[in-house]
Design goal:
about 0% strand; 16 helices
Length: about 400
């Protein structure tokens, strides 16, 4: 994802600038996520797949100028609205709390819902872009708008045929009032639909990918039935191969290093904003104790990754950069940033998106994309995809709503 596309708003003087620090690490992160659970993307509940797939199928069938994205986003918005109508207020499978919750059915025509400003900026549909082709539900293409359903995708949709017909009529008559007969986005799929999704998780794609997903799914089944007090790297699950476990641990250690690097840069940004002599930092000047502590923490994280001797050369390079003397660490990280902080000879200067504090965005409800996470037993910084697979497996067994309602995720 382009660092200028999503993130926290910059100061008012540069309103188009976003505050996402990628540190040029997105490709590395994507590789470790793929090694964890190949092809899962951001999917974490079953209807998330079906809503996106319905949009693809209906747009293709109508062939009336409606794009896959317009149809899928509108279907998701209507399904979330139905959840709010039924009285749900806070459920991670509902989005658009501020935008669509209080709308009336007459406000939910397809022509209204297809507009980019109608619903959230980052719909749940975006989490399916990788999963739909990887799991064999659409033909592989470079963009969501180019997707077309495969025979397997159509088979999955036939298992939710009634809903598909409702959405088709709504989109075909774009000024018609939305029907309340649609199911909310948190509604469980039929057992047959869940079984088909599970089968694709186990068998779709290359042998290596399907074996990793199948093994991870078997592990999730055991965790579902008998939750451990804590999963530790020293005790590899019997379902996971040595190589897969090594990739999972290396990924977690890489993510931990990245998190420590981001924390260091945020601390530096805050200190720079508090300088009375100007908003810059001279690399030749002494570092404050908090910055030195943050650098030491970062170096420990980086060293832990390097000790694993993982073959990802780019990840090793980043961790080597983080395991240097303090000034060299700052120089390397700011050079990677170049967006919020930038390097000018021996001076670290504010970039276009400099803000000087780490306050969270005030509109995270609309744009948050992280699903809930069972945080009480996972190893720290484990790939989000393993969390997602755990939740998806609960959903495929009809247990996700109970899990969420009991507050077992945070």
């Amino acid at each position: 994802m382009n660092s200028m596309t999503w993130g926290l708003c910059a100061p008012a003087t540069v309103p188009s600038i976003r505050r996402t620090r990628t540190l040029q690490l997105n490709e590395i992160a994507a590789r470790f996520n793929q090694l964890a659970v190949p092809g899962l993307g951001g999917v974490w509940f079953a209807r998330q797949i079906v809503m996106a797939l319905q949009g693809v199928w209906i747009a293709r069938q109508l062939n009336n100028g409606t794009s896959n994205i317009e149809a899928a986003n509108a279907i998701e918005a209507l399904s979330c609205w139905k959840g709010y109508v039924e009285g749900k207020q806070r459920d991670a499978r509902l989005r658009g709390f501020n935008k669509i919750r209080k709308l009336h059915a007459k406000d939910l025509t397809f022509n209204a819902a297809r507009k980019r400003t109608f619903y959230v900026t980052i719909p749940m549909r975006m989490g399916t872009v990788e999963a739909l082709p990887a799991l064999g539900f659409v033909t592989p293409q470079r963009s969501f708008n180019a997707f077309d359903c495969t025979a397997t995708g159509e088979q999955l949709l036939r298992l939710d045929k009634g809903q598909q017909a409702l959405f088709t009529r709504w989109i075909a008559a774009p000024d018609s009032i939305a029907t309340r007969a649609v199911q909310p986005s948190y509604e469980a799929l039929s057992s047959d639909a869940c079984q088909l999704i599970r089968s694709q998780l186990q068998h779709a794609g290359s042998e290596t990918d399907s074996q990793r997903r199948s093994a991870a799914l078997a592990w999730m089944d055991r965790l579902r039935q008998s939750r451990p007090a804590r999963i530790r790297w020293e005790k590899r699950p019997a379902e996971i191969t040595v190589e897969h476990w090594h990739d999972l641990q290396a990924g977690a250690y890489f993510f931990a290093t990245r998190a420590a690097a981001l924390d260091l840069l945020e601390r530096l940004e805050v200190e720079m904003a508090q300088h009375r002599s100007g908003v810059c930092h001279d690399l030749r000047s002494p570092l404050s104790p908090p910055l030195l502590d943050a650098i030491q923490h970062l170096r420990q994280r980086a060293q832990a990754f390097l000790l694993l001797q993982h073959p990802d050369a780019a990840a090793r390079q980043f961790c080597h950069e983080c395991d240097q003397p303090p000034t060299a660490v700052l120089r390397a990280l700011v050079k990677r940033d170049g967006h919020i902080l930038k390097l000018n000879a021996e001076q670290i200067e504010p970039g276009n998106a400099f803000r000087g504090n780490s306050a969270a965005d005030t509109n995270q409800d609309e744009d948050a994309v992280e699903p809930p996470s069972a945080q009480d037993f996972w190893p720290e910084h484990l790939s989000r995809r393993m969390h997602n697979l755990f939740l998806l497996n609960l959903d495929l067994h009809g247990e996700l709503s109970t899990w969420l309602d009991k507050g077992k995720v945070a």
